[in-house]
Amino acid sequence: MKKIVIAADSFKGSLTAAEACEIIAREARLLFPQAEVIELPVADGGEGLVPVVLQNLGGELRTIRSHDPLGRPIHAAYARLESGAAVIEMAAAAGLPLLSKTELDPTKTSTVGVGELILDAIESGANPILVGLGGSATVDGGVGAARALGMRFLDRWGGAVTSAGELSSIAEVDLLEFSSLNYAGKIIFLTDVNNPLCGANGAAAVFGPQKGASPAQVAQLDQGLGRLAAVVARTSGLELKDLPGMGAAGGFALPFVAFMGAELRGGIDFVLDLLEFERKLVGTDLVITGEGRTDAQSAMGKAISAVSRRASAAGVRVAVISGALGEGAERILELGVSDLVQAMPEGQALEDAMANAADNLAAAARGYLAALM
User: Fold this and answer.
1) 67 with 116: CB under 8 angstroms?
2) Whether the Cβ atoms of residue 287 and residue 318 lie closer than 8 Å to each other
């Protein structure tokens, strides 16, 4: 074997993408010392996007004063690349980990902190601005973030609508202050879901419960997002609520697509293009990818699915080594994966598996690679 590419995603809760790649690569170098082994950590646009991009493309972290989903002051960081682009993880200022379980309430949480990160990137001259949509605690249709850029969402009495729970009262959008921002660059939102904004498959119904929404709040949020979309459509002339991906991160991209010409793109494919994945596949004999848990959803746009699809299309053997294999994991084989390996030993408790993730992954990689010799 002459060349091996390790392109793993993060093992959420236990290993970063870089750590997972390093562990597998170490075993590959021991067993195939003559081979060129390339570590290529990947991310699908959600959490982990910034370190992956920085490691592969170079740049620096920029930290600013911002606010968390409940409006509390925090320091949040984003990446400025050597190319002049900015890369922002929505979760840095609106993520679930910023709140305790008792604080989860998407009728109250806001994306204002993400807007502050975007505004800083705009004012510092970044272009394009890439925003990874994932891991958010919000379902506010991007209203909080848009307010940070000067957009105003008003009720019929002219009062400001500032929370997701009030979206149903929106009557108009005031763009007067926003118009002075005059950003001529490009904003690109990266997502790994195709959900529309509203309805049974929309932002509130599908993602609201995991952010703390009760059934009654899901209905309230869905109605509010529908009202927001209608007012935005009347103001911009664009009907966006059924656009695939608009439901990502609580409908975050809606005002930016409507009033700033922002784009929605598949996160992992955009990231793989950014990392020049096809070029790195030239001459490769084996690609190893993986994630914390592989199940039926993994084949539906997650990072390892895109890695597997592209590597298989290039005629390269693909192996998936993941922390655990759940129901439907075998669907990833339909994308051209040759080998599917679980790192967690049979019978090991999940808590123990998380604590021993590095050792488990090393052992699984060692066993798999040794069998290829």
Assistant:
1) yes
2) yes
Helix then strand then coil, % of the chain, to nearest 5: 45, 20, 40
Number of neighbouring beta carbons within 10 Å of residue 9: 29
Separation CA 63–CA 32 (nearest Å):
41
Contact 61, 49 (CB under 8 A): no
**Dist CA 272 CA 267 (whole Å):** 9
**Tokens coding 280:** 């790195």
User: Distance (Å, rounded) from C-alpha 29 to C-alpha 239?
Assistant: 53
CB 117 within 8 A of CB 78: yes
Convert the pLDDT of each residue in 298-317 to its tens digit. Answer: 887 789 999 999 999 999 99
Q: How far is CA 362 from each of CA 2, 72, 76, 369, rounded to the nearest angstrom?
A: 21, 40, 33, 11
DSSP-assigned beta bridge partners for residue 319: 288, 339
Write out pLDDT tens, residues 137-148: 999 999 999 999
Q: What values do phi and psi take at 127, rounded to 5?
A: -165, 125
All structural domains of the chain, each given as residue ranges with its CATH number in brackets, are 3-42+280-372 (3.40.50.10350), 49-268 (3.90.1510.10)
Would the pTM of this model clear 0.90, i.e. be above it? no
Burial class (CB in 10 A: 0-12, 13-18, 19+), 11: buried
